[in-house]
Every structure is written in structure tokens, then in C-alpha cells.
Amino acid sequence: MGAAATFFSTMNEVEEEFPLTCVPAASKCACWRFIGSLLMFSTLAGCRSGPSHPPTFDDFRRAIREDATHTNLDAQVAIFAAAQLSNKEMQRFLTRGSVEELVGAGTQAPMTDPLGRTLLQHATERSPAAPMVWAALAYRDMSLLQNQEAGIETIADELTTAINRWRSLEPTNAAPWYLEAAFQCLRTNVASAKQLMAEADRKEGFEPCSLAIQKCVIRAMESARRSKYIARLYAMGQVVGVVGWSKLSKTILAESSEDQQAIRSCFVLGARVGLGKSFLEQLIGDSIQTKAIEKLSGADFAAERARISERKARIRRATAYNTSLDTRKFSEERWVRFLDTCFDKGEMTAVESMAADNGDTF
């Protein structure tokens, strides 16, 4: 199943438990369909419909209006098609780009373009002691496999190397263990995946490097003369890791109806994912925990259920408020601050700050 199809499947499940009409994973009116469309777009090369390249803040505002009036439901996707780095721009990073720019450019490249992986490989050669570069390469390899852009045996050794290097640099980080578990599930080796998740339970931390990778995308986009707003909005659409964690837990739970240890491992994974800064991470983390709770025995999860319910309601209100902002005129600089707050302090804090600035409540 490709990345976009996996995303839509995951979001359908999340919607069943946490019905939301729209969740702003990028900025104002960004829906699950919008992010999924970006993932689908990322598998295509050379798509250049829509505004001139590169697009501006006004282009995006126009696309918002077209989406709202249903005159062009793909208007926002066309913006991102125009914003994506060209092959020529990515080639320039190979010769004079920083490590951060290499990671950002490689992450945003279409899955069908081998230059994406080349850029990430170059980053690992330039900075082999940086966990983020190995994480970015490992995520890319997993996406290649999920999109069937590479044979599993062709890429397996490279993926395993990237995971092992990441793990050796951060021995207390559970994220590379979960990623290897997801890889084993992809190979239908669920027994090994369960063992890896049990090992991940014993790790103290969970740092998937997703935020660091998104900030690299911003760095690359700005270096290629994209506006601060477009660079940040584009980076918010670069979802790495989180949907894979949902797919991993779903596979483990389906194969572990009587395996309480494996179910508890999924519960732990959900709790960790739910600590993320975006609504997307929080909802998927809560969804993973909810499914695990349904299968766990011998414990009272009333407090946890109440917390999840309360957060769901809070996100719903924040979403409704955030969507209402489309009818107001804010400067590009204000939206840049909004997006920076999403990255640095969390999406809920960003919405609360916007509401406070306008004397609103939600």
C-alpha cells in the first residue's frame, strides 16, 4: 500500500473514533484530504500545474478561496506542485548544500526521483554522527518500499544499515526500534516485530526526528528562494513516521488478540506518539491507545479514556476556530509566526495564541 493510501486508511480509522470535519495539520483549512493529496503528489515527478513557480502567499490565499467555493478542489495541491524544488535546484544542493539543506531537499523529492535518496545519502556521508540524517534516510527507504518504488531485497540492506546507524548513535531512543518493527511487519515477520517493540518499551526516550527533518525542509525551501510562508506550509505537509506508527500498531494488534505484552507495547507506542506537537500526532497517538485499551485486560483505563475524550473535544473546538480564520485578513508575517509556533510550541498553542491576539475564545 502506498503512502497516500496508507494515510487515507489511517485517517478513516481515526475519524471513526475522533470525528472531525477538518484538522489543521498544515495551517488554517488543511484537511486530511489535503495532506493525503500531498503524499500522493510526492510520488509523482514533474507535476507543474497551477500558479507560476514558485508560488506566493497571494497564490495560496487564492487557492483557499477556490477550495472554499468548490471551484477548484485541487487548488492547494497545485500550489504545492509549484512550490516543490525542481530537479535543477536539487542538483545544486549536491555540490554546495549544507547537511540540513541536503536532508530537506531529499525529503521533499518525489518518490519516483532517485535524486531524493542520493541527497540523503550524501548527507550521511557529510555528517555520519548526526542521528537525524540516518533517520531521514531510513524514512525515505521505508517510503520507497511502501510505494513499491524499490524491491524489498534491493533496499533492505540499505534500510537496515540506516536504522542500525541511527540506533547506535541514540541507544536510548525507541524510534529506530519501532521503525525496524514496521519494516519487519512489511516483510510479514510479525514475531520479530513484537520482539522489537518489547525492546522499544525498555528505552527511555522517543525522538522520531520528524520535527528536525521538517525544519530541514524549511531550510532547503528558503535557500531555493521560497517565501518563509510557503516554505513552512510545505514543510508541514512533509509527514514522516507518524502514519507508519499507526500502521505498525494496527498490524501488531491484529495478530495479537491474546498477547497482552504486545498489546501493552502498542499502548506505550500510542502514548509516545500522542506527545507530539501536532494535532495529527495527538489524534493518531490517542487512536493507537484507544485500540489497545479495547484489548487490554485487568486494568481500569477510565482516567485515560477521559483524557483522550477531553483532548478530542479541545481539538475539535480549535479546528472549528482555526477554519473560521479563513474569512479574516491576516498578514503573511502573522501566518509565518503561527506556523513557527506550531513547530516550536505545538499546534494547540499556535491556535490559542491566534485567538488571544484577536480577543477570541474557543
Structure characterization notes:
- With 362 residues, this protein is mostly helical.
- Helices cover 69% and strands 0% of the residues.
- The model is unreliable at 1-8, 21-34 and 39-49 (pLDDT under 50).
- It has helices spanning 3-17, 32-42, 57-68, 75-83, 87-96, 99-108, 115-126, 131-146, 152-169, 175-186, 190-201, 210-223, 228-236, 242-254, 260-273, 279-295, 302-324, 332-344, 347-357.
- The chain has 19 helices and no strands.
- Helix 8 packs antiparallel against helix 9.
- The chain starts with a helix and ends in a 5-residue tail after the last helix.
Task: Describe, in short, the structure shown.
The chain has 362 residues and is an all-alpha fold.
Low-confidence regions:
1-8, 21-34, 39-49
Main β sheet profile: none
Q: Helical amount among residues, as a percent range?
A: 55-70%
Number of helices: 19
Described by the principal axes of the CA atoms, the overall outline is: globular
Assign the structural class, choosing from mainly alpha, mainly beta, alpha/beta, alpha+beta, or little secondary structure.
Answer: mainly alpha
Order of helices and strands: HHHHHHHHHHHHHHHHHHH
End-to-end Cα distance:
38 Å
Number of strands: 0
Tell me the Rg in angstroms.
20 Å
Instruction: Quote the beta fraction.
Output: under 5%
**Mean pLDDT level:** 86
